[in-house]
Design a protein that fits this description.
It comes from Linnemannia hyalina. This is Pyridoxamine 5'-phosphate oxidase Alr4036 family FMN-binding domain-containing protein. By secondary structure, the protein is of the alpha+beta class. Helices cover about 30% and strands about 25% of the residues. The chain has 9 helices and 10 strands. The strands form 2 sheets. It has a 6-stranded antiparallel beta barrel with strand order 1-2-3-8-5-4, surrounded by 4 helices. The protein has a two-stranded antiparallel sheet with strand order 6-7. A hairpin with a 2-residue loop joins strand 6 and strand 7. Helix 8 packs across helix 9. The longest helix has 22 residues.
Length: about 325
């Protein structure tokens, strides 16, 4: 490579950085998202392709949630901890592909990269999200444990933030049985059709679980599932009269003992609506995706345009114009 070619390559790499300092493809993708979806609340589904450890190809649909504001290189998708098909696919192979077809602008993106799972703190999963550069400072530059703690707190705040953005109907779906499993669950498994956010006290009463669990409002449009509440109490070893969970009319009765203990903290378990909300929030995960290679195809111009973005081991991006 001549010195002139080296300078041209360096300038090309500099041009790949957008005004916010992130690779230029992030601006291209976010602009396409805004053009095609605007302020629409309709769910956006992408196709995920991966391979299992045995080499079998899997093709799944995942729902797009948001772009990570603090780092434009990351996409946020929805994942339920009960979705064993998707969860096992990611935990078997962290590398996968996303196909995103833009319906209005006649363009699509093929993104190859790595997946990370941001789950509730009490859940144990593989491939936790990475420590982002803005979380490393002079106070923890040499302390990996402190960096990981700051990262965990950051990603949990992102999970809470995205949970609050979900529509009420979407939150309710996190109380339902595993998607795609057979036979289909009984109607009582799908009683919850809308769920309002009940995490408002998490910020003002951090660590005060008794305050969080003692709200009296009922956010569900229908009664909560007795089987779901029973499962939640069983998981946390909540005390109370198990025989009173269902009465003759199928409604949920208040347990004999309204308080129990979780990790030494007293909580109230006489609010089935809040219990079911916590089940749903516990199931809600962020599937974090970091693209490493992107193919952007635009079919509107003639001839069509195909642009390939690639990154090397050092994280430097390069762009190539390819035949359509």
């Amino acid at each position: 490579m001549t010195s002139l070619q080296a300078v041209e390559r360096t300038m090309s790499e500099l041009n790949l950085l957008g005004p916010d300092g992130w690779p230029a493809w992030t601006q291209v993708l976010q602009k396409a998202h805004k053009t095609n979806y605007g302020r629409s609340d309709d769910p956006i589904y992408l196709h995920l392709a991966s391979k299992t450890r045995l080499g079998a190809v899997t093709l799944l649909a995942v729902q797009f949630q948001d772009f990570l504001q603090e780092d434009g290189r990351y996409l946020l998708l929805q994942l339920s901890i009960t979705d064993q098909n998707l969860l096992s696919t990611i935990q078997s192979n962290q590398v996968g592909q996303l196909a995103w077809q833009m319906p209005k602008s006649r363009e699509y993106f093929h993104l190859t990269g790595k997946f990370y799972i941001c789950s509730a703190p009490r859940q144990v999963t593989r491939y936790s999200p990475p420590v982002l550069s803005h979380l490393v400072n002079q106070n923890n530059a040499e302390d990996l444990a402190a960096q990981r703690q700051a990262s965990n707190q950051f990603w949990e705040s992102k999970r809470l933030e995205q949970w609050r953005k979900l529509p009420a109907k979407a939150r309710a779906s996190y109380t339902w049985p595993q998607a795609g499993s057979t036979p289909k669950g009984p109607p009582s498994s799908f009683q919850c059709l809308a769920m309002e956010d009940m995490t408002a006290t998490l910020t003002s009463n951090a660590g005060n679980r008794d305050s969080v669990m003692s709200q009296d409002s009922n956010p569900m449009s229908l009664p909560s599932s007795p089987s779901s509440v029973t499962s939640f109490r069983s998981r946390w070893n909540l005390t109370g009269s198990s025989n009173n969970n269902n009465n003759a009319g199928g409604e949920i009765s208040t347990p004999t003992s309204p308080t129990s203990s979780i990790n030494g903290n007293k909580i109230r378990n006489d609010n089935p609506a809040k219990i079911l909300h916590d089940i749903a929030f516990d199931n809600f995960c962020l599937l974090v995706f970091k693209p490493l290679d992107i193919v952007h195809f635009e079919s509107s111009p003639l001839p069509p345009k195909r642009t390939i973005y690639t990154t090397d081991a050092a994280g430097q991006w390069a762009v190539t114009e390819a035949n359509p």
